[in-house]
Amino acid sequence: VTLSYDAEQRDRYGRLLAYVRRERDGLFVNAELVQRGYATTLTIPPNVRYASRFRELQQDARAAGRGLWSSCGR
Asked: Could you give the angle at the alpha carbon of 69 between the alpha carbons of 68 and 71, nearest 5°?
């Protein structure tokens, strides 16, 4: 995998903040997890590069009842 960063590499608690891509085919792992309904978004400025994209993917996953959204009341 390849990691890339937004404005900050770590949060105030020292946690790594990274976007993950699979090297062999460029799959954007963060987006794939949200799109399949296995992750939700949490945007904390100034790290907002993909915020709107993740928000749209989450809305679509929720509306379609994908992943964990199938178990939740929509």
From this structure: 75
